[in-house]
Design a protein that fits this description.
Length: 793
């Protein structure tokens, strides 16, 4: 056989030579065949139908990946000017019957379609095209359609296919004893089966849908089933006289979503049947009330709107509660909204706000994690360029525990931060400015207004022998106006403070190259001098209360976390770092050091107290004495698949371990896991009256390519008891996911109504159809999981 291009014009009028090896043009007839076989197929593009969240939702990444534009979707565009290539054992023109006949290993190549058949006949008088004998078409997306016979008109409006079987690129299959195409966009499969599951032919697929008739309406993008049965391993388990759903090309359409069910000891049995309103291409609404047998109907609705510059969501929930054993009775409700919009290429605005009728409503109905104890509402305006940053924010803080007083309710507006880095060197170094201002008001407590300015200069220099010298200087000023602050020994309501600092950081890295890799030893010393004393007792501390001294903070010029406190006096920071890097990816880094207060007042010695008598930060920070505690950090990757990070702090007097945070991640063959260990020495100022040691671990074992088992445990070593644990058994293949979870929570906290709880959750997902979830207790959201029903994927 030889291949020859055929012209695409004058189809049906060219004269063909009679004989076994004749060749001429019949492009129109053969193009019809290639085009129609694509039109007659049914597709598998995965829909993101009724995706419930614009914001970091896992549903934006479907479990099952599919190739775009597969069997479903719009008719492919055919370039009629493109050449068509054909080869066959025989190509002849039957002048008596006015037919073009190609037979024997017919192969047609056109517009990236490949068609093979035993015989192709174009009847010019009837304007019909027939392909017979092992008909197979491969489209540009890799989908393969097979049939024994195809009969179709040349206007593509009607067709008949016998023994049609279609396999898409993602192995979704649909087969029928016959298929009929009518009205140009409706394809009917009789005695048909549909499955996305692989099968070797000797065993039935894991699941499939069989029906007396499957109809695909391409115009309305709907697939309907008549006399349908859902089969599991070839056994019918569910019969439906009629069933329909959008085809996988549909991303959004009004209709019911998959139901979800649950059971709770406090709420009773619950079920939810969401209804989705596809109101416009860029906004929608999901109405999903959930009925609880002990408390009544929890009304819920989610509004989503996406514009050309951003997006936002509004979620509402409310219930007329029947009992008062969940922290209240009568009408309880909440409104949650978040959004973000781009104002220009450098500017954006957004918000994250939740309004609620009382402190416990959202926890009681699993709208929030039961561990959430504070509410933080935020609105912001942010701008950023190469050397400038601006942010204006508004915060509202509120406590969600039973023992919170009104002192915890506060509003901070505005909070403005501005950073500028000079575009040109100044005195050979980098000059930058920071400005911060905020206004805080409380219902009962300290009200304050703060303006802080910070100028910094630094210059990095490397001498001829590789020593690195980095001189730096800074000037900080702070103006605080306050009322209701009765701790400081002053009657003034406005305080001015400032501190100037200058210093130098010195390091001398030594590099050695060996057959194993490169080694870098880098001793580092830093000295900073400031004025010896600044009276900070008159200033309330609102943003510098968090202080964790570790190796990452060792060479910070000011180790306080905010603007309301700063270091004074002269301090030296000393440390050494070792780094190893091998060509095969093995690496190691170790850091060790100490900070020494040389002169002046140590700002970490006396943290002071707030109006409630609570220390602003712990005096056991490790920095309160002349010589600080030792800090160390180890970062290891001894082989691929294993990582270890460990940070520790040791008492400078006797090397007693004060704090340690370690985490190891490993993967070896079918086993993967994470092990975390934390230790903190007793500190009555933070509520730790005894040493606290805790283990956190997760472990996953892949039993086969489809089965896996995993577990999680959180263990209190000192109390010798389990805090939380979870066990999961999971099956996942190309078309089906099943997971069974057992969760135990032993946490108790009466201030947030948290009691021990056990939860069983069953979830399964069918490719192209949707997922289903059942949980025995809504308190499973102790792990922070949202309590939402299944959604059609």
């Amino acid at each position: 056989m030889r291949r020859a291009p055929l012209p695409h014009i004058q189809c049906g009028t060219a004269q063909l030579k009679d004989g076994p090896r004749g060749r001429t043009s019949c492009a129109r007839a053969l193009a019809i065949l290639a085009f129609v076989l694509v039109v007659a197929t049914v597709g598998t593009h995965a829909a993101l139908a009724q995706n419930p969240s614009f914001f970091n939702s896992g549903l934006n990444n479907p479990t099952f990946k599919t190739a775009p534009n597969a069997m479903f979707g719009p008719t492919p565009t055919i370039n009629k000017a493109a050449p068509l290539y054909m080869q066959a054992d025989d190509l002849a023109y039957d002048s008596g019957n006015n037919r073009v006949v190609a037979q024997g290993n017919v192969e047609i190549y056109y517009n990236n379609f490949v068609l093979t058949a035993e015989q192709v006949v174009y009847d010019r008088a009837q304007n019909r095209l027939r392909a017979m004998g092992s008909v197979q078409l491969k489209d540009p997306n890799g989908n393969i359609s097979r049939a024994e016979e195809l009969d179709i008109t040349d206007n593509f409006g009607e067709a008949f296919v016998r023994q049609l079987s279609v396999v898409t690129k993602d192995d979704t299959r649909i087969a029928g004893e016959r298929a009929v195409r009518r009205e140009g966009n409706v394809t009917e499969f009789d005695k048909a089966k549909f499955t996305p599951c692989k099968s070797d032919g000797s065993t039935p697929p894991l699941w499939c849908i069989t029906a007396a008739r499957i109809t695909h309406d391409q115009k309305s993008a709907t697939i309907s089933y008549q006399d349908a049965a859902f089969e599991l391993f070839g056994v019918p388990v569910l019969y439906l006289p009629y069933f329909e759903h959008p085809d996988p090309t549909v991303k959004r359409r009004s209709g019911f979503l998959m139901p979800s069910f649950g059971n709770s000891s406090t709420l009773g049995f619950g079920f939810e049947v969401p209804y989705y309103f596809a109101l416009a291409p860029n906004y929608d609404f999901t109405f999903h009330p959930r009925y609880w047998s002990k408390q009544g109907m929890l009304w819920q609705g989610d509004w989503r709107h996406k514009t050309s510059s951003g997006e936002y969501v509004v979620n509402v929930a409310g219930i007329d509660q029947q009992t008062n054993d969940l922290g209240g009775s009568g009408w309880r409700s909440s409104l949650e909204t978040k959004g973000q919009f781009a104002l220009s290429s450098w500017w954006r605005m957004g918000w994250d706000v939740t309004l609620e009728s009382d402190k416990t409503f959202r926890r009681a109905y699993a709208l929030d994690s039961v561990l959430q104890t504070d509410r933080v509402n935020l609105a912001y305006l942010q701008g950023m360029s190469d050397r400038n940053y601006f942010a204006m924010k508004a915060y509202q803080f509120g406590g969600l525990t039973y023992d919170n007083g009104t002192t915890t309710a506060s509003r901070v507006f505005p909070v403005i931060d501005y950073n500028y880095i000079a575009g040109q060197p100044v005195f050979g170094g980098e000059l930058s400015f920071d400005a911060h201002t905020r206004s805080m008001t409380r219902t009962n407590g300290v009200n304050s207004n703060v303006l802080a300015l910070d100028g910094n200069w630094r210059s990095k220099n490397i001498d001829n022998i590789g020593q690195v010298w980095t001189p730096f200087a800074s000037l900080k000023g702070n103006v605080t106006n306050y009322s209701g602050y009765t701790v400081g020994p002053t009657s003034d309501d406005t305080v001015f403070n400032g501190v100037a600092a200058a210093g130098v950081t010195y390091s001398y890295p030594w590099v050695a190259h060996t057959a194993f890799g490169s080694h870098t030893f880098e001793p580092t010393a830093q000295i900073i001098t400031r004025q010896s004393r600044v009276d900070q007792s008159k200033m309330p501390d609102e943003d510098a209360r968090s202080l964790v001294f570790d190796d990452t903070l060792l060479f910070d010029t000011d180790k306080f976390s905010g603007y309301d406190r700063y270091e004074t006096g002269t301090r030296a920071n000393l440390g050494i770092q070792y780094t190893f890097q091998a060509a095969n990816g093995v690496s190691a880094k170790g850091v060790f050091g100490q900070s020494i207060h040389l002169a002046g007042q140590n700002a970490f010695t006396n943290p002071g107290v707030d109006t409630a008598g609570i220390v602003n930060f712990s005096p056991y920070s490790g920095l309160g004495s002349t010589r600080s505690d030792y800090v160390a950090g180890a970062y290891l990757t001894p082989w691929r698949g294993f990582n270890l990070i460990s940070q520790a702090r040791f008492d400078e007097r006797d090397w007693t371990l004060v704090r340690q945070d370690s985490i190891a991640q490993a993967t070896y063959g079918p086993v993967s896991g994470v092990l975390g260990y934390t230790f903190s020495h007793f500190d009555p100022y933070t509520g730790a009256v005894i040493d606290q040691r805790e283990l956190n671990s997760t472990l996953t074992l892949r039993l086969t390519n489809t089965w896996s088992v995993s577990g999680m445990i959180r263990y209190d070593i000192d109390a010798t008891k389990v805090i939380q644990d979870q066990l999961q058994l999971k099956y996942a293949d190309e078309c089906f996911v099943l997971s069974l979870n057992y969760i135990e929570n032993y946490l108790q906290n009466p201030t947030i109504n948290l009691v021990p709880d056990r939860t069983i959750m069953l979830r399964f997902e069918l490719k192209h159809i949707g997922d289903f979830a059942y949980r025995t207790n809504v308190l499973n959201n102790v792990l922070g999981e949202p309590n939402r029903g299944g959604t059609i994927q």
